[in-house]
Design goal:
598 residues; Butyryl-Coa Dehydrogenase, subunit A, domain 1; binds flavin-adenine dinucleotide
Length: 598
């Protein structure tokens, strides 16, 4: 049996049964499309992923990148699929056709990206970063800047990056020292050093556009004084032709645990005093602008971790069906009984069902955010648009942090299903573990995500975002509780939701008291428990749909949805309630732990 890259049926379930994306076709925005066109895009993505991208996943890991005399070479196997991604304009699915896009809904683009990212997420870092850089220019650039850069970035013809991190400025971006000085011709001279820059130098594209955070001389300290500059690797003339190489030098490439096909570069800007850039937007608004790219990339990072987890789960499921080992539990005493596939053992079923429920819950959550983006775009009025925007805001740190941690756990669990073979390079699950780990560290470490969740999202706007999220969860609970098969699950989730709401409110109140440090010491456990509740919500939502279809010819598929919800709500939610109860937002020992006591 050939390995399935992902679960096409479950993607269709999420698109058309859970989020009913075909209803978008009645809106003015998408009236030029039909369902056949949506399906065609996903099918094309699948073909590209299976035939051209997936075969490069292990090879690019083995070959890795090389660095010599300031030049970086990426694994050659990436060249053809990268070219196909660019030619097919896969990076710009949701963008305007004026700039190389196709104007599709985000939810459909997410399905296509699940295939492409799942096949080799190291490859898709290239177009994703190009798109993110393009989006900022689209939102904040001048007409000239858009004309120069937008189409090339959206389509991935040119590479894109994001230059925030410096040796002394990682999580604390405001500590950066890269500086900018205005030149007579209106461009800016940039001087500084950046580290850990994904795809900062590579030989796949003719040019690379670096969005760089820097401080204009004399600007205030901290994040308030940061501006954003567009710094091309090769200067782009006013007529769009390429000019001289800019003074951007790659000084090194990291040796790292995973992501071997993606160079993580140190870049020196202006070591010869000749690095030039364009200011994007107004001076000192750099962080605000960069947040547009950061939020987009945070969702992508959640998708990367989900894609690794999904791939690891697909491998584990495939292996568990084939690997013969041990007798069935019913025939333990029968020494003549033959070996059975390990999928028959209750402990292996437990691991697989756990993986299935996390993977399917994460899929729904990630598509839900895309769905909220679409609903915001199609909103009838400002109030409705704000509602969906609030949901995106509060769920973004959850997708980034929860998916990266649970995605990693799923990869580790998949390795366990493989036994000793999982730990060897003969099978690809160990690569998923190595590649997935970075997701909890980069793009704002999960500790920073947790602080954002508590400080800005739960406590922000007088708790409005939290209330709107809780109301959405309650509406699914109301549907489930009227259904005999799901009523108990609804009751359990509702108890957890009540505890969640109280804990969120108590922790955010503590933030404004003398217990502020205790509250922040609980930010990560709170985010993790929130992720559990949100996952349970997604799985219960799926179960309410599946429960109506148990008598159809796809009964087994729908029963699988009910089992996933049962497993999660019966085994993970009680533990989540324990986590919530353990949140010590006052007098937390971690907050009062003095350095010298360690
Ligand atoms: C493979 C890879 C690719 C990367 N790609 C890019 C890129 O393309 N562009 C880019 O700009 N950067 C990139 N980075 C950098 C990455 O975003 C940073 O490593 C990350 O933001 C953390 O910064 P740091 O490494 O300096 O760790 P630190 O900031 O020193 O953090 C160390 C630990 O302390 C915690 N911590 C720090 N400050 C606080 C605080 N105030 N409150 C609570 N906890 C705190 C963190 O959560 C973390 O656990 C990449 C890194 C890697 C490894």
């Amino acid at each position: 049996m050939a390995l399935k890259l992902t679960d096409q049926r479950d993607i269709d379930f999420v698109l058309y049964e859970q989020f009913q994306v075909d209803a978008f076709l009645t809106s003015d925005k998408y009236k030029a499309f039909n369902k056949k066109m949506f399906d065609m895009v996903v099918k094309e993505a699948k073909n590209l992923a299976v035939k051209e991208i997936f075969p490069t996943y292990t090879e690019c890991d083995k070959v890795g990148v090389s660095f010599e005399n300031g030049m970086v070479k990426v694994p050659e196997c990436l060249r053809k699929p990268h070219k196909l991604l660019v030619e097919g304009e896969w990076g710009a699915l949701t963008e305007s056709p004026d700039y190389g896009g196709q104007g599709l809904p985000f939810t459909i683009a997410q399905a296509a990206m699940e295939y492409l990212t799942g096949a080799n997420y190291i490859l898709t870092t290239y177009p994703i970063l190009s798109h993110g850089a393009g989006k900022m220019i689209d939102l904040f650039g001048t007409r000239e800047q858009k004309d120069l850069f937008l189409e090339k970035l959206y389509t991935g013809v040119w590479g894109g990056t994001m230059l925030l991190t410096e040796p002394g400025a990682g999580s604390d971006v405001g500590a950066l020292t890269t500086s900018a000085k205005k030149l007579d011709d209106g461009t800016w001279e940039i001087t500084g050093s950046k580290i850990f820059i994904t795809n900062g130098e590579q030989n796949l594209t003719d040019n690379i556009i670096h969005p760089v955070l820097a401080r204009i001389e004399g600007a205030p300290a901290g994040t308030k004084g940061i501006s954003l500059f567009i710094v091309p690797k090769i200067w782009v003339n006013a007529d769009g032709t390429l000019g001289e190489p800019n003074d951007v030098i790659c000084t090194g490439v990291e040796e790292k645990m995973g992501l071997h096909g993606s160079p993580t570069c140190s870049l020196s800007l202006g070591s010869k005093g000749k690095c030039r850039g364009f200011l994007l937007g107004s001076p000192n608004r750099g962080m605000e602008i960069m947040f547009h790219m950061m939020n987009e990339v945070r969702l992508e990072v959640g998708t990367q971790a989900f894609a690794s987890a999904n791939l690891a789960y697909m491998h584990a499921l495939d292996y568990a069906k084939q690997r013969l080992q041990g007798r069935s539990i019913e025939k333990l005493a029968d020494h003549g009984a033959g070996q059975v596939p390990i999928i028959r053992h209750p402990d292996v079923k437990r691991m697989l069902l756990k993986m299935k429920s996390y993977v399917e819950g994460m899929r729904s959550l990630i598509y839900y955010i895309a769905f909220c983006f679409d609903k915001k775009e199609m909103a009838a009025d400002k109030k409705e648009a704000m509602h969906y925007s609030n949901l995106v805001e509060i769920l973004t740190p959850v997708v980034k942090a929860y998916s990266s941690e649970k995605g990693f756990d799923v990869c580790v669990e998949a390795m366990q299903v493989f036994g000793g073979y999982g730990y060897t390079r003969e099978y690809p699950v160990e690569q998923t573990v190595r590649d997935c780990k970075i997701a909890s560290i980069y793009e704002g470490s999960n500790g920073i995500q947790a602080m954002d969740f508590l400080g800005r999202k739960v406590a922000g706007n007088k708790g409005l975002m939290l209330t709107e999220l809780i109301n959405e969860i309650k509406s699914t609970i109301r549907i489930a509780e009227s259904n005999e098969n799901l009523a108990q699950l609804a009751i359990t989730l509702e108890s957890a939701l009540i505890l969640f709401e109280t804990t969120c409110k108590n922790t955010s109140n503590a933030m404004f008291s003398k217990h502020m440090a205790s509250a922040f010491a609980c930010a990560h456990p709170l985010l993790e428990a929130s992720g559990d509740i949100i996952m349970a919500w997604m799985l219960l939502w799926r179960a309410t749909i599946a429960d109506k279809k148990l008598d159809t010819k796809e009964s087994a598929f729908y029963q699988g949805k009910i089992k996933a919800a049962q497993f999660f709500i019966m085994t993970i939610i009680p533990a989540a309630m324990g986590k919530l109860t353990a949140i010590t937002y006052e007098n937390n020992p971690a907050a009062s732990m003095e350095e010298h006591l360690f």
